[in-house]
Amino acid sequence: MGTVRILRVYEEPESGEYRVLVDRLWPRGIKKDTIDLWLKEIAPSTEVRNAFGHLPEHFSTFERDYTAELKGNPALQQLRGIIDSHTRVALLYGAKDPAQNQAAVLLDFLNSAA
């Protein structure tokens, strides 16, 4: 298994890092050639994302609901295959908060299931 980290989509990746956007929406101002794969199917549903609204007081509910969605998400197999076939993977997100976002929840989920 390769090394996986989260990175804001507007930050510069390390050399050789495979970049996977895990947002359902394409981030403003980002060119398509800066992303290796847009895996929007792994992102939280619109309902879960909108209920969170990036409000800190809603994060624990968001984390619970998104984790529940991940357990039955077929895109998880695809992401695990990508992680297995690349030495370094960056899960990209567009949110401003580096701790309370879907990529952080996804990374925790991947680490707990490993």
Architecture overview:
With 114 residues, this protein is an alpha/beta fold. The chain is 38% helix and 16% strand. Helix 1 (46-52) packs antiparallel against helix 2 and helix 2 (59-71) packs across helix 4.
The count of strands amounts to 4
Rg of Cα set: 13 Å
Strands ordered across the widest β-sheet: 1-4-2-3
Helix percent band: 25-40%
Q: Any low-confidence stretches, pLDDT <50, length ≥5?
A: none
SS element count, helices:
4
Please state roughly what percent of the residues sit in beta strands, choosing from under 5%, 5-15%, 15-25%, 25-35%, 35-45% or over 45%. Answer: 15-25%
Basic shape: globular
Distance between the termini: 10 Å
Structural class: alpha/beta
Keywords:
114 residues, alpha/beta, four-stranded parallel beta sheet, 4 helices, 4 strands, globular
